[in-house]
């Protein structure tokens, strides 16, 4: 895996497109004195370097080591100013902030009427685009100006501003509480994954209900509804209520389709909403709906009007390709899905600085699963090792757990049983550290621990016994969640029937399409 560059300035320079680099040089050259400036020289050096090398920079002799830090900070700031001026980075949010800055300058010059005129336009623009935090800032500045300069243009101006400030404040507080709850639930999900028993459910349920603020859905604006649906979605994911996940993800996405200008203003939330909608459909195995939603999602991100900047482009890749993997998993088309792995690995090189390690590891798990389903166990092990050997990784506990279990199964399938006992013991020690194991996991570990002592002609009977035990958990509201990560039942059926696991899953899929 390509490691993220540690130097922030170098990463920023390397993230610039050709047009952004050209504009930066034009921006710097607006005054002749800057043409040979040291920060422009530093920019050109960094642009040519393939990896960050401080000694190579110092050898150019443009700056002493003691001054390099200040020069880098100055260059970083100048690049950001240049990017801010770039039309491709202009949006309503930046325009409103710019107008607020202009109004503040006019206010400090004592030009109160001019300042208030700009503020009023900016405020209306902010409110119409659901930018209520900056709208509140604008009202507060209006109040400051009115307290020093009475315009008398509106007799009840003070009352109007007071009421407006109060309404915006209440809306912002509600949005803040809902966004806090959404983020906290998301953090819990990343740490622990789905709840495993009634006790965990009660803890999460109380946590959610204690923090959910009171609201009237008919009085909520776009922003408040968005955070409400996000909070409800994460609660549904944590408690593995996938029908509710589908319900609130649908509401989330529909909210954008009903307010299409918000897609342009908040493309990240639009992308994430579609991803969670697809994830819910994947878990519900609603194949036709999943396929149609994925196709519509990919098509809209390719529209000319869709704001596909560096960040949005990497997120679109992340969500679309994750769900392309999931489409193959539903269909059982593992062999057909193998070319997808090379595509993703190539694209990860381009997006390595913009996609966090957790999501890269999720890709590796999907790649491992694809190879496992295609019967290529050694390649499956290769990608699982990238997850298991990563000691600095902060990932969901349940995903780490199933990476190790799949690793055991893949070693068994590959005939690499010379150190299977050692692998079983290390996996067992890791799982024991988890506070609660699924019964599925416990039964499977028990089976693997005695597998080495079973005579070859008795193995099939042991597979049948384990299959019977695990089938009892298939419809259990908690234990069935273990099968979301690893379809152990289909693997056992493949061993019992002596058929490839991909074929077993494919046949099950085809039966649902009849």
Question: How would you describe the overall organization of this protein?
Answer:
The chain is mainly α. It is built from 25 helices and no strands. The chain is about 75% helix and about 0% strand. The radius of gyration is 28 Å and the shape is globular.
Which short descriptors sum up this protein?
single chain, 514 residues, disordered N terminus
Average pLDDT for all residues: 86
Largest sheet: none
Poorly predicted sequence stretches spanning 5 or more consecutive residues: 1-5
Helix fraction? over 70%
User: Could you give the distance between the termini?
Assistant: 42 Å
> How many β-strand stretches?
0
Shape by Cα distribution? globular
The value of Rg in angstroms is: 28 Å
Number of DSSP helices? Answer: 25
Tell me the structural class: mainly alpha
In terms of DSSP E residues, the strand content is: under 5%
Order of helices and strands: HHHHHHHHHHHHHHHHHHHHHHHHH
Summarize the model shown.
With 514 residues, the chain is mainly α. It is built from 25 helices and no strands.
What is the fold's blueprint, element by element?
Elements (H helix, E strand, L loop, with lengths): L7 H8 L2 H11 L9 H11 L5 H6 L5 H21 L6 H17 L3 H17 L3 H17 L8 H36 L5 H14 L10 H17 L3 H17 L2 H5 L1 H18 L2 H15 L8 H22 L2 H18 L5 H17 L3 H12 L8 H17 L6 H14 L5 H13 L7 H13 L16 H10 L3 H12 L2
Helix pairs in contact: 2-5, 3-5, 6-7, 6-8, 7-8, 8-9, 9-11, 11-12, 12-14, 14-15, 14-16, 15-16, 16-17, 16-18, 17-18, 18-19, 18-20, 19-20, 20-21, 22-23, 23-24, 24-25
